[in-house]
């Protein structure tokens, strides 16, 4: 050892050790410079550009021509294959390892004898270990180069991809690898980091510092004996164990791979293959290593495109090294999908994991999603899952979430044991700093003595690296650090449970992310398709399930098509697609999937409906009510020239034909719940509507409402006849009117497509320039309407039809927008004549309340919130609801209720939301509560209109299904996954109270059995203590508030 102990300045001593392993400084004389001591060029490089992402066996049959290091390849998204010919020099026979070093400044894949061996990228996985190649002989292998980086090909992370980028092949060479140097580098790095990150109040920090300093003194660069001596010093330090009460960190390898984001779905398939093959290769050398991996869709891609790799994964799953988690089809958005979509994420996810791995996931895994619905705990528990992991709330801008390990409680009271890894990251480098951050960041100290640490590069970064595993090997039991073990999520949660959960805190309701609230609105087209197709698939399933009960139609349920459509819809719910935070190419791919679903589903719906009607010569119009309550509504029959169907004359018993402004025949029908009805059977009595034009305004009136509308389409007054009051408190100053369009500046701090900041509210600009003044459009007994057209700017405009139907409790706004703005946010607002400190918002299978004030930082952070089909603000006895057919962004401040319509961010898609849009919203004042006044039902009606089609007499009259309590909604009727003679019915309590309900059906059902959302029968077949029994034509149920109930209905 050194004879002279110098006075140690901490910074100098530390930096000296850092420079000794630096890969930037002094590499000619330091230890890092000796990691790859020898290098030599390969024999030859051959190249072939291919047209697409083609399979290996096809690529190698192509013509390859000679190329060399230094050349560039492109353009963006192209694929180039290389054959590398090499011979390992005989003089290297005694070397630890020979590797192929590669840098194409892009992502790449190594193929070894037809086997996908490993991913390569310039940042984390720069070389490939050449095992089993005898020295002195010629060998070859293939490398598939993808012309994109880890994060696509944009500038500054989220910039749109540059389509003409090229990628330089800057390194292809053989190198030797010195294992002893690698080990010593990681000893030194660990000690340096302990000295740096353990607080100075802890003497362990200085012990690490002096230990590493002495090691640097011992080392003579180039002398392996000195390395071994230095390693012994380190090992002595690392062998000093921590106390028995210390914290345990459960380290888990992970690679968060976005299913599409700054690159298309097709590239994700290869990203998975690269990262997962890299991980399997690491597992061969590190038997302790555990890798946690989610998203059934990604496994399915690899199963289809890389069956050999998938088989290796399957074996690794059996050994509990490769750990499937999540239980969902993709890591979906946590706000926007419907309740049934959430259910299907788990149904398709868990069934996939059961089928291929014979195991279900017990951990819901959603580390990167932009907020979490308050209905998720119940759905998660219904999917057979107890635990939940995320970390995204650490991104909240305003408030720090107070827990790391806690009970998350949903709107129905269901609870999931939940953990936020305290390092606030799903892709750490497993450095000492991350480990210490985990201990320090645990917000439940004294209650929980375990935490999760996730490590590994995501998004094609290849997952964990050998450096990360080397770090973890050193810190298993080291005084000054927590105990660190390679673990799994279930091991972690079981450790928490074993220590006792009585002391854990609860968080009730949504996990609201105070960031990324623009994702409720961005890429409106995706949101519109999502909403529309959720209802469409529901209707297809309902109609074809009814067919199951008809002997001639059995066996015709379109299971394969429905599976395919659902999987497409679920894929597009991925957390960078439906939220709108992806590049243009992804939007185009998603729209293509949606269009295919729409085409197939419309055809299947019509086929299913026609099949329910008996063959009869006499044709007429029929109407199908897909919802579980009776509804009276004005329908429009197609014009004869538009569609082959019965002539108007054949629509008998419609006394006087009423036509709308487009020449379509209007009929008021009253249809039983979930039933088919001939239009001629219409017996609804008409209370006529009327339109009155006066100076400066037009009045639209029906039996419920009187709307006074000005030339700009602004509703100056909306009189509710029953309540005898106005729904709006309008004010000229600042243009506070009902249906006032407003434009806001929308320039976030960084995350363009994602974020709308609170300060946008300070830039409100009412839109007050008419193209033409309001015109009367429909003026008949059943419908009155007016048309307006407004300039948003010289490039953008709004055209709107405001209509009121006979019997309808709401005023409807059918809207078209031509939109060409830059960083502007369009909303529509309503100044309500209501005082309430809370507003209510529709969510999955229920609703929740949020404040209308800014009392606390938690309240004010919710300046833009998510809601589905409706939002409502009510005081005692009266309220106003705002319904919509495809929007999700809302805000209510004071008495102003706003619906978010369109944004115009430019990154990562510079064309986001540019062009034409169509959407509908409606305003519904009501007496009593929103529950009693039918807001929920009307919102369903607006989203799921009566289906009108030409056909003949149905098999039977009456309701296929109905329920006698308006609090209970039948959401889903589908064929059971595993039994062609069983229908699954899913219903829920929608009002937020206990509900008794009788479900009746005209179908011949012999037995009803309660099941979970995976369609597994519940062992005791009881609902809140009551046995489920199908008696005669009905079953009685007793539901708890917001309870979701699934039943297996066995057909006779
Ligand atoms: Zn992500």
TrEMBL record:
It holds the Pfam family Ams1-like_1st. One of its GO terms (biological process) is mannose metabolic process. The keyword DNA-binding does not apply. It catalyses: Hydrolysis of terminal, non-reducing alpha-D-mannose residues in alpha-D-mannosides. Its EC number is 3.2.1.24. GO terms for molecular function: alpha-mannosidase activity; carbohydrate binding; metal ion binding. Keywords: Glycosidase, Hydrolase, Metal-binding. Residues 514-594 form the Glycoside hydrolase family 38 central domain. The keyword Lipoprotein does not apply. Belongs to the glycosyl hydrolase 38 family. PANTHER family: ALPHA-MANNOSIDASE 2C1. This is alpha-mannosidase. It comes from Patiria miniata.
């Amino acid at each position: 050892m050194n004879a002279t102990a110098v006075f140690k300045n901490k910074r100098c001593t530390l930096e000296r050790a850092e420079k000794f392993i630096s890969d930037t400084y002094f590499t000619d004389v330091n230890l890092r410079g000796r990691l790859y001591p020898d290098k030599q060029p390969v024999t030859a490089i051959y190249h072939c550009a291919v047209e697409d992402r083609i399979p290996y066996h096809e690529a190698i049959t192509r013509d390859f021509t000679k190329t060399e290091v230094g050349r560039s390849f492109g353009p963006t998204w192209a694929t180039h294959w290389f054959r590398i010919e090499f011979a390992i020099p005989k003089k290297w026979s005694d070397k630890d390892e020979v590797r192929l070093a590669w840098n194409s400044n892009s992502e790449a894949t190594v193929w070894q004898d037809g086997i996908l061996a490993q991913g390569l990228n310039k940042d984390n996985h720069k070389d490939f270990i050449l095992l089993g190649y005898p020295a002195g002989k010629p060998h070859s292998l293939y490398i598939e180069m993808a012309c994109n980086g880890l994060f696509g090909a944009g500038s500054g992370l989220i910039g749109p991809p540059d389509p003409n980028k090229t990628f330089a092949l800057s390194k292809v060479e053989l190198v030797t690898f010195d294992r002893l140097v690698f080990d010593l580098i990681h000893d030194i790095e660990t000690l340096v980091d302990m000295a740096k990150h353990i607080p100075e109040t802890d003497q362990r920090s200085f012990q690490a510092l002096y230990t590493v300093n002495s090691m640097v003194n011992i080392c003579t660069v180039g002398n392996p004996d000195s390395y071994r001596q230095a390693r012994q010093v380190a090992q002595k330090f690392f062998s000093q164990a921590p106390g028995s009460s210390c914290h345990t960190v459960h380290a888990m390898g992970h690679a968060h791979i976005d299913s599409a984001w700054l690159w298309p779905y097709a590239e994700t398939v290869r990203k998975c293959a690269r990262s997962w093959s890299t991980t399997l290769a690491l597992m061969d050398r590190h038997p302790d290593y555990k890798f946690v991996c989610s998203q059934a869709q990604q496994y399915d891609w690899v199963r289809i495109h890389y069956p050999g790799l998938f088989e290796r994964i399957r074996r690794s799953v059996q050994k509990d090294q490769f750990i499937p988690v999540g239980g969902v089809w993709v890591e979906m958005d946590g706000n926007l999908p419907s309740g049934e979509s959430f259910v299907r994420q788990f149904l398709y996810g868990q069934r996939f994991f059961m089928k291929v791995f014979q195991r279900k996931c017990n951990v819901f895994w959603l580390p990167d999603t932009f907020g979490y619905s308050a209905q998720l705990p119940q759905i998660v528990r219904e999917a057979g899952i107890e635990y939940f992991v995320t970390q995204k709330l650490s991104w909240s801008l305003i408030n720090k979430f107070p827990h790391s390990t806690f009970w998350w409680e949903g709107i129905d009271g269901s609870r999931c044991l939940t953990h936020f890894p305290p390092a606030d990251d799903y892709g750490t480098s497993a450095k000492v700093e991350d480990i210490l951050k985990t201990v320090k960041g645990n917000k439940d100290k004294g209650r929980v003595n375990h935490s999760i640490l996730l490590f590994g590069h995501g998004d094609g970064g290849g997952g964990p690296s050998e450096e990360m595993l080397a770090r973890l090997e050193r810190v298993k039991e080291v005084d000054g650090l927590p105990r660190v073990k390679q673990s799994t999520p279930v091991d972690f949660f079981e450790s928490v449970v074993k220590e006792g959960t009585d002391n854990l805190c609860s968080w009730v309701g949504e996990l609201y992310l105070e960031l990324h609230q623009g994702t409720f609105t961005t890429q409106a087209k995706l949101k519109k398709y999502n909403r529309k197709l959720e209802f469409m698939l529901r209707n297809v399933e309902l109609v074809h399930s009814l067919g199951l009960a008809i002997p001639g139609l059995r066996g015709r349920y379109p299971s394969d098509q429905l599976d395919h459509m659902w999987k497409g819809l679920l894929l597009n719910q991925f957390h960078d697609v439906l939220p709108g935070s992806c590049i243009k190419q992804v939007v185009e791919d998603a729209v293509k999937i949606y269009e295919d679903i729409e085409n197939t589903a419309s055809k299947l719906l019509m086929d299913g409906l026609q099949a329910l009607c008996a063959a009869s010569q006499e044709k007429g119009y029929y109407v199908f009510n897909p919802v579980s309550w009776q509804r009276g509504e004005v329908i429009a029959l197609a014009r004869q020239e538009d569609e082959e169907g019965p002539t108007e004359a054949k629509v008998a018993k419609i006394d006087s034909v009423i036509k709308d402004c487009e020449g379509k025949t209007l009929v008021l029908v009253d249809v039983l719940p979930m039933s088919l009805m001939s239009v001629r059977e219409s017996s609804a009595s008409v209370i006529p509507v009327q339109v009155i034009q006066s100076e400066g305004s037009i009045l639209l009136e029906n039996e419920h409402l009187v709307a006074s509308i000005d030339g700009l389409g602004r509703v100056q007054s909306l009189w509710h006849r029953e309540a005898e009051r106005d729904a709006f408190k309008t004010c000229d100053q600042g243009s506070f009117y009902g249906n006032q369009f407003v434009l806001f500046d929308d320039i976030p701090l960084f995350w363009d497509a994602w974020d709308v900041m609170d300060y946008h509210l300070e830039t409100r600009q009412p839109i007050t320039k008419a193209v033409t003044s309001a015109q009367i459009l429909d003026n008949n007994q059943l419908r009155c309407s007016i048309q307006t057209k407004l300039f948003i700017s010289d490039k953008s405009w709004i055209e709107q039809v405001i209509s009121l139907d006979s019997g309808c409790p709401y005023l409807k706004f059918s809207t078209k927008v031509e939109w060409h703005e830059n960083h502007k946010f369009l909303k529509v607002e309503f100044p309500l004549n209501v005082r309430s400190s809370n507003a209510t918002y529709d969510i999955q299978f229920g609703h929740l309340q949020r404040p209308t004030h800014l009392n606390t930082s938690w309240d004010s952070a919710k300046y833009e919130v998510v809601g589905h089909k409706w939002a409502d603000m009510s005081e005692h006895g009266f309220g106003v609801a705002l319904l919509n057919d495809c929007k999700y962004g809302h805000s209510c401040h004071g008495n102003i209720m706003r619906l978010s319509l369109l944004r115009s961010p430019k990154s990562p898609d510079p064309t986001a939301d540019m062009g034409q849009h169509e959407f509908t919203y409606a305003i519904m004042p009501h007496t009593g509560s929103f529950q009693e006044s039918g807001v929920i039902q009307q919102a369903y009606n607006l989203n799921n209109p009566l289906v009108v089609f030409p056909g003949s007499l149905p098999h039977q009259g009456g309701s296929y299904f109905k329920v006698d309590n308006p609090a209970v909604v039948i959401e889903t009727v589908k064929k059971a996954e595993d039994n062609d003679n069983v229908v699954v019915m899913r219903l829920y309590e929608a009002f937020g109270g206990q509900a008794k309900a009788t479900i009746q059906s005209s179908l011949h059902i012999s037995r009803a059995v309660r099941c979970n959302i995976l369609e597994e029968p519940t062992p005791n077949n009881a609902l809140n203590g009551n046995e489920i029994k199908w008696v005669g034509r009905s079953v009685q149920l007793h539901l708890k508030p917001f309870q979701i109930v699934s039943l297996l209905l066995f057909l006779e």
